[in-house]
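Supplementary Text 2. Reproducibility record for the structural model of the 513-residue chain.

All settings were left at their defaults, and a single model was retained for analysis rather than an ensemble. We include the record here because the model underlies the residue-level annotations in Supplementary Table 4.
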Amino acid sequence: MNQPADLQNLSPDQLRTLVIQLQETVTTQAQGLAERDASIHQLQTNKDKLTHELALLRRHRFGKRSEGLDKQQLALLDSLVDEDIAAIEAELEKASVASPQRERKKPKRQALPQDLPRTEIHHEPENTNCACGCALTRIGEDVSEKLDYQPGTFSVERHIRGKWCCRDCDSLVQAPVAAHIIDKGIPTTGLLAQVLISKYADHLPLYRQEQQFARSGVAIPRSTLADWVGRCGVELQPLVDALREQLLEQSVLHADETPVAMLAPGKQRTHKAYVWAYAATRYSPIQGVVYDFRPSRSGKESRDFLADWRGKLVCDDYSGYKAGFTNGIIEIGCWAHARRKFHDLHVANKSQIAEQALDYIKELYLIERELVEHSPEQRRQRRHEQAKPILDQLHHWLIGKRQQVPDGSATAKAIQYSLKRWDALTRYLDDGAVPIDNNWVENQIRPWVLGRSNWLFAGSLRSGQRAANVMTLIQSAKINGLNPQAYLKDVMERLPTQRASKISELLPHNWRP
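Retained model, structure tokens:
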């Protein structure tokens, strides 16, 4: 009511200032609305994508069977599809928090076998006095049972939450339900850790775990196990993302890749997908490895993972890394690969040239063995004093021998490999934080090589990346001297209540049980 009179009393300068302020307010509000609309649109787009993917997976899971797969392969594929379905449903549940939908009907849960040993865990309020001053009276309890597993033995945890009531003001007090990585799920984190370790560390498919559990007296359907694995994969993703962020803060990284067969749902053939491994060096204050499952070996896959990282990358001579070297990444050569060329040559024909090259390289490794416990600066200094003279001799010797052997011969190719990469192979001299070879990350690839002969293929990109995530945590726990099963169990207990800003505290190199 007073606004017109106030406006009439304002001077022209005051009116202009008021108009500017109003324009800024409107602009800010408009930007906020635009950002909110964009966020809602992005969420809806992602939700539509997940819904479409879920429909395709269900069509495959419950549709016509592929005749190109045997019974064992079908069991593997069905488990992978069930895991994907569970993972997508978990993501959709998170995306639907703001607009909850009708709850999906779930089959009635069967009671756990009565012959299993049971441990009662009581949850009572911290205070049994009402706010009105009266003493609370216990009027009942809620009981929920969770299935636990210790190697070879099932047991049941009976969680008893007493109900306390004030008879004067009719208030009801009860201890809250503890957060769990699978909301309202029946398995304890110990059982979940067992399933994940068996599948990804011991390479035991779910249908075999189903049989194993049945022999122990507990029937857990394979579809239920797959549901647990899929949901755990979604919940553990933030941990892997945090480890990736910390690795990319390091100035030196290892990189390597290995093929894995992947079968798209509905297809009868597999094609090559790849697991890329990125690890901190043994000299780094942070220890760990991150696996990245990708559909190809294209150099773009590595560039997408490394993003804006600009450091020193220890790798082999694969061309996929070359584009990164033109954008600021420094290439570090691997002496193990150079040595392998001469080793293969020597094994094939007892080449004296190869034997002499191997002797030179052996001297370089003997020096490195003595420098393991030294500081980076001490390592750099000793390398210049001891290794550089050997490298200078080797370089001069290689150039001379190259002129003596015919072009195209195996000896010429072995020599040319080292000469072509000489700058990259000798950069380790100038930085004590740089290792002499890429063997460390190659060791971290071996679990995948072993697993390929057991689980045969990845069912989809989603299942491949889920395997990469879980194996990232398992292998990083091993690197840091932790029991991976105990680590996963403890992490999954704390993860539901851990704030996003504190998620890095759960990483293996920061872990404190």
